[in-house]
Fold these 3 entries.
Entry 1:
Amino acid sequence: MSGMANEGSGERPVALITASCRGPGLDRLHELCDVHYDPWIDQHPLRIWDGRQLAARVDELGATVLVCEADVVSGEVLDRPLRVIGSTRGDPTNVDIAAATAKAIPVLRTPGRNADGVAELTVALLLAVTRHLVPGDHDVRTGEVFRDGSIPYQRFRAWQIAGRTAGLVGLGAVGRAVKWRLEGLGMNVISFDPYSPDATHSSLEAMLDESDVVSIHAAPTPETLGLMSAARFSAMRPGAVYLNSARAGLHDLDALTEALRSGHLSGAGLDHFDGEQLPAGHPLLKMDQVVLTPHIGGATYDTEVNHTTMIAEDIDRLLAGERPLYCVNPEVLP
């Protein structure tokens, strides 16, 4: 693609990039624009700008291209003559899409950027839960390998996951990435997704009844929030394992806690919580059969390479007068 100059002028656009970017895509952005690279994630203490702060920086630089990940793109910054906003997220929730659309500013996104990273963490959670890795690690570190006159083989016996059935809720980019990984480990993988023709089940309850492991990969929408309710946890097989590497809002946390406390579920692996952490003293914090990680599924350098490439290629298309592939509001395009 060409796309090296502003439409109607010989000047290169100025880009303010506050997302964490790397790889060939960042090199391409430098070829396309005069780049001011100031990633939010490298700041200590952590820095997240609002629309007013972004507007001040855009004014200072004369930027017309804005690429953000965590900063909130709303308010004053949308009054600036921005040619494009890139959000390095699958769902650009940090951008006021309606206001950007009203200003005729195209907004780009990066669907599937972290699918492999989240899928890998899902597998890690599954193995950590089923093979008791966290309590086993604890016993070694604290010198309690022969705790209470027992040996680890007694305390940590487990079923292999090979030959078991995993039920996936959602067959988007992450669900598909999880599917082939679990199949590669010898699992039978079934699925529920009313929007995917590849799903094996049209009934969530029927899928739950057949699954030794249930893993959630749905997007949080009004339709899916609270999807895993008390009734649906009860519909899971006794002794099943529950995994959620998506969003906490997809399940009823109290119902999940009770299903684990009662022993109906044998374990759980969770990578997200409302407010990004569990409140102090929450019962899950004391359950050895539960593995908790702090929303790190997509925290890979590869995710940054992926989203940078996708944003750079779409900015290139826009500057060349072509249609971008991942524009949230294509109605603003010529």
Entry 2:
Amino acid sequence: MPWRSTAEHYGNVAMFFHWLIAALIVVNICLGLYFADLPKSDPYLYYLAQIHKSIGLTVLVLSLLRVLWRLVNPVPPLPADMPSALKFLARVTQFLLYVLIVIIPLSGWLMVSASRHPVPTPYFFLFDWPNLPKVADHELLVDTHAFLAWSAIVLVPLHVAGALYHRYWRRDQVLAQMLPWG
């Protein structure tokens, strides 16, 4: 399998970014939903929050690299016989997911930085990740981060459903293009 994408198949680098970011997002959504309901007195809350933030920052860096990689690599086209409305829906969903994988972690970083008690994030407890300058009210950023996360919770299953639609309904190669063994 080539490193670079071609008109027929995504390359190893694009697949690596796709599947690693997807896995990290699923883990972070689960972590975020879990610790959001924990009482402030829970002894694991601090550690779970730091892991959530570290994963989010990792997603941010990987997503920026993924966007750069996509700008210099071709994207396999959707099937020519696919209805134009579905092509539009697929492209809009992909675009929104690209936006979300950058702005969700960025909004989280801004939110943490705008806290009344801003402390650096111990990135996987290896080193301190610095805060950004305060650009907005902390509560506004909390609401924004939550709204964006819920948007991803809606869009990710839609994206998966689209991939399964291509595999099992249309029986085309769209899903196979993103699978290492496709």
Entry 3:
Amino acid sequence: MSFPFSFYQESAQVIQNKLGAFQPEVAMVLGSGLGFMGDVVENPIVIPYGDIPHFKVSTAPGHKGQLVCGTLAGKKVAVMQGRMHHYEGYSYEEVSYAVRVLKLVGCTKLVLTNAAGCVNRDWEVGDIMLITDHIKFFMESPLRGDNLDEFGPRFPDVSHIYTPRFQDAARQSAQKLGLTLREGVYCYFPGPQFETPAEVRAARVLGGDACGMSTAPEAIAAAHAGMEVLGFSMLTNMCAGILDQPLSGEEVNETAEARKGPFSELVLKCLEKM
């Protein structure tokens, strides 16, 4: 069952009341181990998800579960420190609910980050990947149910779900910073189990370069609402079957922590150009 548009309006109104005259223009969703970006927001206004009506609470390890609004790299931002996942028991509409609310608050641009497993054998753990497209075959769309015309059309075009001009800005930013920026396709898997070696091989055959359990639903909701999207994956581990070793959530967070310096530099440089 779809949420009525009034739910989104109520959530947006509570956020706006707390922000006063401040109106963010760029929304940011920070994935596992990457929430530190919210800690460097200038003049922050912090709103716990639990204080926003109809919002769900993030239960994933390392996700603070709060909205931080302020200034970052000269841009007015609304940073989600933690996201909701389908594997937590939430519907896809609930997973992408915050993106639609932030559009109503004034955000027209969205930066999505995630920690992902590396499918591409030519890359290495710790690489940063610019998401150029994604594959999501599993289960329903976040747009399933009654269409909310206030956000967008029944059948939205997603030919360029990740905005080309933002991708160009990311390439230029990486070059200026002297960073190697991988480019590839993100494959969405619902989790919470890591992908099997067979699933990883299938993703590679289909053209995937990374696998993860987030991002795609939020990108779809953003595209439906007419938002421009920039996406990055931090490749925190090689996917199952590539190396002869088990996978763990601890490895994901450890790699993200070790690589947070160059990752944050890249995101900040991109923000300047958005």
